[in-house]
Write a structure and sequence with these properties.
The chain is of the alpha/beta class. It contains 11 helices and 11 strands. The chain has 2 domains: about 280 residues, Arginase, Chain A, CATH 3.40.800.10; about 60 residues, no CATH class. The strands form 2 sheets. The protein has an 8-stranded parallel beta sheet, with helices on both faces. A 3-stranded antiparallel beta sheet has the order 9-11-10, with no helix packed on it. The termini are far apart. The protein binds manganese (II) ion.
Length: about 375
Amino acid sequence: MPGVQRDIVIVGAASSIGIKPYDDGSPRRLDRAPRALRDQDLVRRLGARDIGDVSPPAYRDLVRPPGRVRNEPELARYLRTLARPVREAAEGGAFVLALGGDCSSVLGCLLGVQRAAGRVGLVYLDAHSDFATPATSRTGSAASMGLALAVGRGDTPLAHLATQGPLVHPDDAVLVGRRDAAEPWYGQDALTELGVLDLDAAALRRLGPAAAAHQARERVTRPGVDGFWIHLDADLVDPAELPAVDSPLAGGPRLDDVARLLEPLVRHPAALGLELTIYDPSLDPDRHCAAGARPGGYIYVYGSATMVRALLAADLVDELLLTIEPIILGGGKTIFADDGKAIPFMLESTVKASTGAQVCRYARAR
Ligand SMILES: [Mn+2]
């Protein structure tokens, strides 16, 4: 941003109370994400001021209350608490970087910046619409309703956190990058009906990241809108690059395209801040996903089986990410040379995408 340097304030929204537990019934550990991200030297690299974490009350609704949001009163209390430091930082003119946490933290951030700035717009970057209501959500996770609750949709106090009206008017909101067409319970049918601009994954591919960012920015910087907030769910990034999320969906943009999408947004003077959600360090034991956000940390090479085979033969591969698509008929190429030499790899993690593809990460055993 030429000539303008803004302070960055980092706050940890270290909470998982807005999202369903793991399959074993224990609460998710997204509360560990702010620490894992700070461990990547984030504060120093951004020259930011770190004001620490806002921690939530204990997880109560391990079993979903029928037709309701899990941990509803706890979450309302938590979001109001999170809003305070966000408001203070925004009032001081800083760009707020909130490290989540689950997607419900967008509501606390919006509450904070709305109090500081007035009428706020919202750019919601997510693989999912998060437009379910407590009545229609499959999980009872407020995280599956983040955008809906922000624009006042749903019969719950969480849709009415602001003193008057919704946190964001639907006309001031844009959803970018959703690819959840096969999962109608995210409430996507109501997006256009309510007036939210819906730039889905196909639109994002067609426009390219720079033009999509431009359209989103037009929407949230119209006269009368005093500033805007950016929500970034880590699951926007293709799971081949960033598998450490709870509901991965194949077919997303790569990290460098996400950076191209973000840059014109975060650099705009009306940008109030950004919250990063859903990154789960317990699905990323060696922190390679966290490190992926770090320039120079890794070199990623995408290529055909032939290219992978050549790199493997030269023993230049530290890690293999294989996206395995189920097929009924057909063949394939082997990625290993047929010289009989073993190159040992260990399976580190495996994530099933909603399309049925299996994303497996192997590390070279040395
Ligand atoms: Mn999502």
